[in-house]
Structure to design on (97 residues):
């Protein structure tokens, strides 16, 4: 079985969806990333300090779930993989909530 993602115009074939368990703070940031946002904007939205938001974004970036812009100030956006993982978490937790 193969899953196809479209990311920035190129297709990525995944033979298996990576197993990613999101912590509550990671999930909150991914849910807040509708469009590009700065650390300050995210900090206000999720009601956490900027340092904590920055560290969590670094972890999400390492997992390939968010990407920073190359502009200043840096704006973060969710990747196609991040959206897929977030949707899968909703699906997996559907019966538990």
């Amino acid at each position: 079985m193969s899953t196809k993602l479209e990311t920035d115009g190129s297709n990525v074939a995944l033979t298996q969806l990576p197993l990613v368990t999101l912590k509550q703070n990671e999930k909150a940031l991914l849910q807040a990333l509708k469009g590009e946002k700065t650390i300050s904007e995210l900090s206000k939205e999720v009601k956490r300090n900027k340092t904590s938001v920055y560290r969590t974004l670094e972890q999400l970036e390492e997992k390939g779930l968010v990407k920073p812009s190359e502009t200043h100030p840096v704006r973060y956006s969710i990747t196609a993989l991040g959206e897929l993982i977030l949707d899968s978490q909703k699906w997996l937790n559907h019966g538990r909530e």
